[in-house]
Design brief:
nucleotide-binding, elongated, Ribosomal Protein S5, domain 2, alpha/beta, single chain, four-stranded mixed sheet, Rossmann fold
């Protein structure tokens, strides 16, 4: 005889920012770390469900059909790279990014590619009318007979459209604009987002329908809404890029079906968004002569090597505290590199304002860019250019030593492929494997030695 369900009531407190709940009041949310956002929501029912009849009994793992988890290409190669080969039937992908960065344009292109390949696609927009989406589709060449458009903000109507169209791919733009009449509050609040996401995910799993959800971000760049949204979906994709740059980077921060260290590169223009199989040219300046204050490095975005250029301008000053301005590089690491050059390489950085930036809107966040930053600064101070065809990468320690970095072979192969003839790298690089042909590898152990080799001192 089954044990009947029991029911109790208990006071609960909830964070107004992220929806995190706790049985007792706390001053700081344990999930989003916001202060003063936890308030009592009254007594809630806590139910204990009884055992019920099993309709789909568990089966041995060897008998499970794995073909349903095979990825199918979306027709957009760079997006497939991030997803791990393509979309899996029943998978739910959350695409997050700042407003105007190109999320809707990319997903409309993906929807058209899938529809042109024979799949049925339903594109539901809660932010634009169907006519507005049609105009954008014409501009980027995303017109397909099997691509259906709907402008809906009600969850029940959205699910009704899914039942009527029976799509292979569903695109919801965006999850914060859809609301349910069964839940109190306006669209976009914690309860609404949780209910909408749960209902759409349940429909996707039941119908084996791949789903792309567009999500908003907060001021600090994190995904808006409750953190449970990120836990419920299968893949979380982050859209990155500078508003004034054409380059867009797409990376997976969570992926149940593939790696999370792949990055897709796209070029956003007036005619749409195009994948870049070789984006390194965007990060290099085009000039005919060598100029002081520049150095080229190779960074790793996930597993993908990208060649970037660092520029430095050192301007003499009489101020007690020289200015330190950076763009595209880590400000704190640059300040440490300046101190190391002053202490261990005898460079008079304390009498100069320092302006360090990257070309093409690239962001260099890994320590391997330290050596290129140091060489660019020294080149500007000494007003001596780095010879063309030179590339440098390595982490600079506070004692002036040049340390190893990951992916040395991939970095060298990318540099050799693009025609660089000389590479300044940390000591021990040769011992890690075969070096590519056509490039001279110069190992250094100290930043002062690296500056001397780079500038032919």
């Amino acid at each position: 005889m089954a044990r009947p369900a029991t029911k109790t009531t208990k006071a609960t407190y909830r964070c107004s920012e992220c929806g995190w709940t706790t049985p007792k009041w706390v001053g700081r949310c344990g999930e989003c770390q916001a202060w003063g956002s936890v308030s009592e929501i009254g007594a809630v029912s806590i139910r204990t469900a009884a055992a019920t009849h099993v309709e789909r009994p568990a089966v041995p793992i060897g008998q499970v059909d794995a073909r349903r988890a095979e990825a199918r290409s979306t027709g957009v190669g760079e997006f497939d790279r991030v997803l791990g080969g393509g979309l899996v039937a029943g998978a739910v992908v959350l695409v997050a990014g700042e407003p105007g960065i190109g999320k809707s344009t990319l997903l409309l292109d993906v929807a058209a590619q899938v529809a042109q390949a024979g799949g049925t696609v339903l594109y539901v927009s809660g932010e634009e009318s169907a006519a507005q989406v049609r105009v954008r589709a014409e501009r980027i060449g995303a017109i397909a007979d099997r691509l259906y458009l709907a402008s809906e903000t009600d969850l029940s109507t959205l699910l009704g459209q899914v039942e009527a169209v029976k799509p292979d791919l569903l695109v919801v733009d965006s999850v914060q604009t859809i609301s349910s009449v069964e839940v109190d509050g306006s669209a976009g609040n914690v309860s609404q987002v949780r209910e909408v996401a749960a209902s759409v995910i349940a429909a996707a799993k039941r119908r084996h329908m791949a789903t792309l959800l567009v999500g908003h971000v907060t001021k600090d760049g994190s995904i808006a809404g409750p953190r449970v949204l990120e836990h419920l979906v299968d893949v979380v994709v982050q859209f990155e890029g500078e508003r004034h740059s054409r380059l867009r980077l797409v990376r997976a921060v969570k992926n149940r079906y593939g790696p999370t260290d792949e990055v897709g590169c796209f070029d956003l223009s007036d005619v749409g968004i195009v994948g870049l199989a070789d984006p390194s040219g965007l990060f290099l300046s085009s000039r005919d002569s060598e100029v002081p204050g520049t150095c080229v490095t190779v960074t790793l975005e996930g597993r993908r090597p990208l060649v970037s250029e660092v520029q430095a301008l050192m301007d003499q000053t009489t101020a007690t505290n020289p200015r330190r301005t950076t763009s595209g590089v880590d400000h704190n690491r640059t300040a440490m590199t300046l101190a190391v050059l002053h202490k261990h390489a005898a460079q008079p950085v304390d009498k100069h304002d320092a302006y360090i930036a990257t070309v093409g809107g690239a962001r260099l966040t890994e320590p391997a860019a330290d050596l290129a930053v140091a060489i660019a600064i020294a080149s500007s101070l000494l007003e001596k250019p780095v010879p063309s065809g030179t590339v440098a990468f390595g982490e600079v320690g506070l004692a002036g030593e040049v340390r190893q970095c990951t992916g040395l072979q991939r970095r060298l192969m990318e540099a050799a492929r693009l025609g660089f003839r000389r590479a300044i790298v940390p000591a021990g690089t040769r011992a890690q494997g075969q070096l590519p042909d056509g490039i001279q590898v110069l190992e250094v152990t100290h930043v002062g030695r690296a500056v001397g080799i780079a500038l032919d001192l």
